[in-house]
Each structure stands twice: as structure tokens, then as C-alpha cells.
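Exercise: predict the fold of this chain.
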Amino acid sequence: MARRTLAREIDVEGIALHAGTPVRMNLSPAEPDTGIVFRRSDLDGRAIPARYDKVAETRLGTVIDDGAGTSAGVIEHLMAAIAGLEIDDLDVTVDGPEPPILDGDALCYLRLLRQAGIAEVAAPRNVIHIEQTVEVRDGEASATFTPANKREFKFEIEFASAAIGRQQFTWMFSQEGFERDIAPARTFGFVHELEALNNTGLGRGATIENTLAVQGDKVVNAPLMRFPDEFVRHKILDAIGDLALAGAPILGRFVGLRSGHALNNQLLRALFSDPANYTVISG
């Protein structure tokens, strides 16, 4: 299995989900074994490796930090697209605090990456094989890895709003399946929470074009929905992006029960806390 990067660099501009400000992003090829690295061009090009142990915030998105105050937030949608195309090495340069939210899904990033083209390099690609069950819990929520010879994702959510209710989805990873079944699923939020978020400087880039807006028991912009169970599919999208911070594809079964970014990150930390939990296979 050869490592993959981009064939050429590509640029895109858009609005940051939380900051609500314009941001420019450059995606460019990277040398083998460098992994995914975010750079802040507005902060002297400071670099932050996209790794689970660099995650500093998970409340409203996954935020990585270099430990000295330089961060990149809401990276999970882009990371999901990168993982969906099985890209191993990539430089991501942004001139603001977050990548642009674009359509609020991973499909927009996937199409951008495809436009740049994929290049394979003669370097081995690692895979992380789950050897024993690893689980983290927070009340009724949990996230679990179990051994399997396939990359499988199962997720279940339940919300009081009838617009979402209880949804469950099981999905087996493939590049084609990711583009068809998972990448188009948009992020979602609750209208009654938006004002409070805005007052704290968050969610200012959320619109009814990039976010499924739930108000009471209805989806305000329901005509934009791409799946009847789009909410649980988006949770799988988020999990794929969060778990991509492992630094290599994870061969095993992931099960999320009402989990989110925090538990996804805690699961990776629990996984790597004990070498008996996994084996790194070099292909």
C-alpha cells in the first residue's frame, strides 16, 4: 500500500463557521511520512500536526493546538474528507482560526481534493489494527473499538426533537461508499442555541445554506436535506474525521452511542495508552 498525497496544490476561500470571518485555505502536497499538518499563515506559518494528542478543545468542534497558543479549529469535516480519500500526507495552510465551512459537509472538501488530484509515493502506509476492546463512557454516551478485519462504523443518536428522534446507521468503509453515503451529510444545530453561541463569538458563520437548522420538531431548511437520517450519518462523518487524528487508518469496528468529539478523542487516547490494544502494520 503506497502512501498518498496531492498531485498539486489548490486554494479555496470561504467563511469560518465560528469566527464568521473570511478565510483562505491552501492544500498542498507533503513529503512522505509527514502526515497531515495544519499551518497558520496569519501567525508566521506556525505548524500544528493533526494528531489526537494535539486536541485541546472538543465542545463545538475538534480544535488542535501546538501547545503555545496556536490553534486550528473545526477540522473534523476536512479531516473526514482526507481520510475518505485515504490521503496520508498533506499540508493545510489557513489564514484564520478555522478552515472555511463551505457547505457544512465533507463532500465539498472531497471534490476539492479530487480536483487537485491524488499522487501515490513509494513509501509504506501503516494501518492500526485493533487487538482488543477499548471503550470510553460519559453517562449514557459511549465510544468503543472492537477487533474486526474490516473498517466498520456503527452509530446511534437520540434527540428529544421529533425532527431527529432516534437514528441508527451501520456503514462499512470504502472510498466510493464514503462519497455516496457519508460525505454529503451536513452539520446540524438548534436554532434556540444560536443566539447564545453568537453572544460568545461562536457560530457566526452558520447559515441555512451550510447547517441543518432544527427548531422545535422541524428542520427549518428541510429541502436541503440529502438523507432522511442525515443527522446520524453526519455523526459518522465527524467520527471519521476525529479518528483520522490517529495518524493512520484504524482497522476495526467503531461503535458510537450518543458520543461526540470529546469521546472520540478520549477513545483514541485510551487506545494508545496501552500497546496491547493495537498493532501497527506496515504495508
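Check your answer against the key: The first helix runs from residue 76 to 84.
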